């Protein structure tokens, strides 16, 4: 099984095969008690069957089926998730006709418009929920209007190196176009690496005075880690700000073992899960949240 075949599987079909049933259905959204966080009393994990993506409101995280499998089973890489999906833990009811069925229902994404970030709902999301200053977000992000299966949506967009858009809004996390890393290079000797652009923006807000001191790499997915190996080799020092979870810690360790110039900086925001959570907590303590 490859990534394309895996992503063609409907998340609700995968969960059903593993014995998970939705607590309720609202239009295209199936709500589950989180299979990532155990002993949940109310359903807070939503699966959008039209876009075939999930979002756990208790975690504030979401993504595609591979992201879910990694979270559910504490896996460190996409290759492990693929093996998990095709291994014995996946019931035999999964067959290639499932892939074909899902492919025919795959959303047809089309970018309608890209504009300056000013939409009130998106500005509220990025400033109130993520704690990022509007001016900072406008410097690196856009608002992207897109269509999926003839329905219109909008989200905060962050461009990657292959021209794809990493998208975030209050209810969805995803990518339109090719998936890739984002590099912001200025010829500096030190580089900082982040999992996603929200953490990158959080760092820029926390250390605005260091804006021009570093180069920046945003992975946009831990699955892109191998793409940065040749890039980070040219720096005197590489600071990692990956998440304080199993996957983030293991990826940090892999990068540290791959090069002597790599340093794990996640202690800075410990015990917070990531830089954005740290920023929000710090802002509230300072009376700005």
Widest β-sheet, arrangement of strands: 1-2-3-4-5
Number of helical segments?
11
Task: Give the percentage of residues in beta strands.
Answer: 15-25%
Main pleated sheet: 5 strands, antiparallel
Number of strands: 15
List segments where confidence is low: pLDDT < 50 over at least 5 consecutive residues. Answer: 88-105
How many domain modules? 3
- Mean pLDDT equals 86
CATH topology of the largest domain: Dna Topoisomerase Vi A Subunit, Chain: A, domain 2
Report helical residue fraction: 25-40%
Q: What radius of gyration results from the CA coordinates?
A: 19 Å
**CATH class (first level) name of the largest domain:** Alpha Beta
**What spatial form do the alpha-carbon principal axes imply?**
globular
Structural class: alpha+beta
CA distance, first residue to last residue: 45 Å
Mind telling me which CATH architecture of the largest domain this is? Answer: 3-Layer(aba) Sandwich
Order of secondary-structure elements = HHEEEEEHHHEHHEEEEEEHEHEHEH
Pfam family, one: Toprim_2
GO biological process, one term: DNA replication, synthesis of primer
Keywords: DNA replication, DNA-directed RNA polymerase, Nucleotidyltransferase, Primosome, Transcription, Transferase
Organism: Marinilabilia salmonicolor
């Amino acid at each position: 099984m490859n990534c394309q075949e895996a992503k063609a599987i409907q998340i609700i079909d995968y969960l059903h095969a593993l014995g998970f049933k939705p607590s309720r259905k609202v239009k295209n959204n199936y709500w589950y008690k989180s299979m990532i966080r155990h002993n949940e009393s109310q359903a807070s994990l939503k699966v959008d069957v039209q876009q075939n993506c999930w979002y756990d409101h208790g975690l504030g995280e979401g993504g595609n089926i591979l992201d879910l499998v990694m979270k559910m089973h504490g896996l460190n890489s996409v290759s492990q998730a693929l093996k998990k999906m095709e291994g014995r833990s996946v019931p035999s009811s999964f067959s290639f006709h499932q892939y074909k069925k899902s492919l025919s229902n795959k959303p047809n994404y089309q970018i309608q418009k890209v504009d300056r970030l000013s939409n009130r709902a998106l500005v509220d999301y990025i400033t109130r929920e993520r704690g990022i200053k509007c001016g900072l977000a406008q410097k690196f992000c856009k608002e992207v209007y897109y269509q999926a299966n003839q329905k219109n949506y909008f989200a905060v967009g962050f461009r990657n190196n292959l021209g794809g858009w990493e998208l975030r809004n209050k209810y969805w996390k995803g990518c339109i176009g090719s998936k890739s890393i984002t590099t912001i290079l200025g010829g500096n000797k030190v580089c900082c690496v982040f999992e996603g652009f929200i953490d990158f923006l959080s760092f820029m807000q926390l250390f605005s005075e260091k804006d021009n001191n570093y180069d920046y790499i945003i992975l946009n997915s831990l699955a892109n880690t191998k793409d940065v190996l040749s890039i980070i080799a040219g720096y005197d020092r590489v600071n990692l700000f990956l998440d304080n979870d199993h996957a983030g810690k293991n990826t940090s360790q892999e990068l540290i073992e791959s090069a002597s110039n790599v340093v794990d900086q996640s202690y800075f925001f410990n015990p917070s899960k990531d830089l954005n959570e740290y920023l929000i907590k710090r802002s509230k303590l300072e009376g700005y949240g």
